[in-house]
Amino acid sequence: KKRIFSGVQPSGNLTIGNYLGAIKNWIPLQEEYECLYCVVDLHTLTVRQKPAELRQRSLNLLALYMACGLDPKKSILFLQSHVSAHSELAWILNCFTYMGELNRMTQFKDKSQRHGDNINAGLFTYPVLMAADILLYQADLVPIGQDQKQHLEITRDVADRFNNIYGDTFTIPEAFIPKIGAKIMSLQEPEKKMSKSDENENAFVLILDPQDAVMRKFKRAITDSDREIRYDEQNKPGVSNLISIYSSVTGKSISDIEKEFEGRSYGDLKETVGQSVVEMLNPIQQRFNEFSSDKEQLNLILKENAEKAAYMARKTLSKVQRKIGLLPRG
Ligand code: AQP
C-alpha cells in the first residue's frame, strides 16, 4: 500500500482554507492508502505560544480531524512531539540542507515580516522539520495546499541528495494538490491567502464559526466595482475566490457556476456561497462538540497512535543513523 503523510499546525483555529485545501482531501485517501495525519505541534513553536492554549488547541485539532471524517481506526492520527524521531531526523537533515535553499522560501520571507520581533532559527529551518516529518514515514504522497508546494520541493531535493550520497534511503514524495480549493484567498484582501493568524477577523472563516458569523463574513467579502460574476483571478480576485469556494464546497464546475449566476447580483452570490459553507460546516461542528468533550478518549487515541507512528519512524531513523556513521547504542 502506498503511504500518505500530512499535517496541520495547532497554531490557531482552523479556517475553511485549511479544510478545503487540505483536510477535506485527506478523507477519501484513507480508503486506499496507509495514512498518517499529524498534529504538527513542534512547528507552532516558531511563533511564541501560550502553553495552556497550545495544549488545548492540540487536543482540539485531533477532535477536529475526527469531526472532519478522519478515522483513528483507518489512519494514524498523532501528535508530532510524541514521536521524538521527528526532531532527531530534523537535526541530521539540517546538515544536508543549504542556507541558500532555505533563503528562497517565500513563507519564511512572509512570516519574518509578520513576526519581525522574533525571527528565530526555527522559523528559518521550518522546511527541514517538515522534510523530516514526511521522510521518516517514507511517504509516497503528501496532500497539501498550494502554499506548501515550495516546502515539498525542498523535501524532495534533500531526500535525493541524501540518497545520492548514501544509497536508497528515502522515498521521494510527490505533492498532491487539489485542482480546486488549493488556495483559498482572504475575504478582505483577495490577493493574499486566507490565513488563520490574520489580524483581521473578517478575512477568514473558521471551521468552527457559528452560522451568523459565517454569513456576516461572506456578506462583507471584498468584490469589485464591476457587476459581472465571472472567474478572472487577475482582474476579479474577490469574485473569483467566492466562485472557487463555492465550487470546492459543492463540486460544481466554474463554468456551471458562472451560468448559475448570470445576471444575478454580488449580494446573491455572497449569500449563496455563505449558505453552502454553513451547510458544509454544520455536521462537522456537531461532531466536533461530541469528540472534543471526551478528553480521555482523545488522549487514549494519541497514545495508541504515537506508538504505531514511533515504530515506523524508528525504522527510518535507525537506517539513517547507521548510514551516516553514528554508532548504534547496542
Ligand atoms: N488559504 C488556504 N487555502 C488552501 N489551503 C491552505 N492551507 C493553509 N491555508 C490555505 C493548507 O492547510 C494545511 C495546513 O496548514 P498549516 O496550518 O500547517 O500552515 P499554514 O499553511 O501556515 O496555514 P495558515 O492558516 O496560514 O496558518 P498560519 O496563519 O499560522 O501561518 C497545509 O496543507 C496548507 O497548504
TrEMBL record:
Record keyword Ligase present: yes
InterPro entries found in the cross-reference section: aa-tRNA-synth_I_CS (IPR001412), aa-tRNA-synth_Ic (IPR002305), Rossmann-like_a/b/a_fold (IPR014729), Trp-tRNA-ligase (IPR002306), Trp-tRNA-ligase_bac-type (IPR024109), Trp-tRNA_synthetase (IPR050203)
Alphabetized SUPFAM superfamilies for the sequence: Nucleotidylyl transferase
Motif annotated as 'HIGH' region, chain positions: 10-18
GO biological process, any: tryptophanyl-tRNA aminoacylation
Binding site for ATP: 9-11, 17-18, 145-147, 184, 193-197
Locus of motif 'KMSKS' region: 193-197
Primary localisation category: cytoplasm
Positions with a binding annotation for L-tryptophan: 133
Keyword flag Nucleotide-binding: yes
Family: Belongs to the class-I aminoacyl-tRNA synthetase family.
Task performed by this protein: Catalyzes the attachment of tryptophan to tRNA(Trp).
Name of the protein: Tryptophan--tRNA ligase
Lineage: Bacteria, Bacillati, Bacillota, Clostridia, Eubacteriales
